[in-house]
Amino acid sequence: MKKRLAAICLTAAMALGLFAPASFASDFETEKSDKTTSSDADELNIIVWEGFWSEEMFQDFTDETGIKINISYIANTDEIMTKLIAGGASYDLVDLESGYVQPFIENGLLQKVDHSVTTNEKYIDPVFYKGAPGDEDMEYIVPDLGSLFTTVVYNTETCPIEIKSLKDLADPALKDQVALVDSTISLYGGALRALGYPADSVDPDQMQEAQDLLLQIKPNVKAFVGESAVPQLESGEVSVAYCWDYTTLCADSKDNWDKFDFVNLEGGCEDAPQFWTIPASSEHPDAAMQLINFILRPEELAKCYLEYGQVPLETKEALDPYLPESYWDNPSIEGMKTLAADSWRAPVSTEQIDLMDQFYTELKS
Q1: Are 69 and 61 in contact (CB under 8 A)?
Q2: Local structure of residue 152 (DSSP, 8 states)
Q3: 8 Å CB contact between 83 and 23
Q4: Under the phi-then-psi rule, with left for phi > 0, alpha for psi from -120 to 50, and beta for the rest, what region is 111?
Q5: How far apart are the first and last CA of the chain?
Q6: CATH architecture assigned to 3-147+272-329
Q7: Which of 27, 144, 200, 252 has the fewest beta carbons closer than 10 A?
Q8: DSSP secondary structure string, 230-278?
Q9: Contact, 89 vs 23, CB < 8 A?
Q10: Each residue's pLDDT tens digit in the chain (365 positions)?
Q11: pLDDT per residue over 65-77, tens digit each?
Q12: Per-residue pLDDT tens over the stretch 218-239
């Protein structure tokens, strides 16, 4: 989720007309099957985030349809941009961050999905069944994961103050005890909302106020973290982190259930869901839709949850036959849902990125 660099790559690619299909190295290839399918596709090339999807699930799809799945795993949005810009292989399905849906649509990089095919959307929890900025009606997207919320996570044993707002991270009592995600949209969007402004504001005066708040917090910052603050939190290096890691902490160990908690921040928390999207260059959109619907089968999604311990996208009623009852004891499952009502989603905007970059160097220097 390194949104700053990926946004720059996106802007450059659009300006130069570089969006050709990407080259990739397959991390997982299934054997050919004699089974028939309604699609003429022999294989699908897909991009997914590492640490969320079960290879057994993709193997099940191949066994049922005969379509081989070539997976390119990525750990941040920069890698998606690199693969799409590089040229080479044509991708058929991309696991895309919500903030990138709008610019991708505006630049003709996605094709519409056919929701009459993805009938298993009926199992999605209503809390998570909503669109992205720029595609609120989900013409181009299908939800694929329960939301990851960027909020304050703290050690209940060592955090010295009560935290209600991002502003509280400037309290001198937290000196050298804070970790911040190294994501401009998360940082400045969160600061803007804490100040009562829209997360996607492009008002220079409002952005300056957000910068002032972050500079007040900076003396307390022990580390800026790229992908995860879990190591810093679990080791005790920091007692507080502004991050999206509460779910991961709870999945790591039951010991973390009481040791860590999260804050429903004043001004709301960043809601950063993922969506299935079909690139405009895909040569097999029908098969891609077939794969989306297969993944949304509760028995298949459950394999991902058993492997990685996520907040489920689908309802407990749908998943109960395939998950142990103890799975639902994880406090992050219901906890994250409480953040949804007052959450915010901000699209990647060239104008806002340019504005944030004017302050970013100063903040990190």
Answers
A1: yes
A2: E
A3: yes
A4: beta
A5: 21
A6: 3-Layer(aba) Sandwich (3.40)
A7: 27
A8: HHHHHHTS-SEEEES-HHHHHHH-THHHHHEEE---TT--EE--EEEEE
A9: yes
A10: 445 445 545 554 453 344 433 322 333 333 333 333 345 789 999 999 988 999 999 999 999 999 999 999 987 777 887 777 765 568 999 999 999 999 999 989 999 999 999 999 999 999 999 999 999 999 999 999 888 899 999 999 999 999 999 999 999 999 999 999 988 899 999 999 999 999 999 999 999 999 999 999 999 999 999 878 999 999 999 999 999 999 999 999 999 999 999 999 999 999 989 999 999 989 999 999 999 999 999 999 999 999 998 999 999 999 999 999 999 999 999 999 999 989 999 988 889 888 988 898 889 88
A11: 999 999 999 877 7
A12: 999 999 998 789 999 999 999 9
Q: Do domains 3-147+272-329 and 149-271+345-364 have the same CATH topology?
A: yes
* CATH H-level superfamily of 149-271+345-364: Periplasmic binding protein-like II (3.40.190.10)
Q: Give the global pTM.
A: 0.85
What size, in residues, is the chain?
365
Tell me the CA distances in angstroms from 330 to 22, 32, 143, 310, one per residue in order: 38, 39, 22, 10
Domain extents in the chain: 3-147+272-329, 149-271+345-364
Nearest 5 degrees, angle CA 58-CA 63-CA 69? 40
Residue 256 to residue 118: CA distance in whole angstroms:
37
Tokens of 255: 């010991």
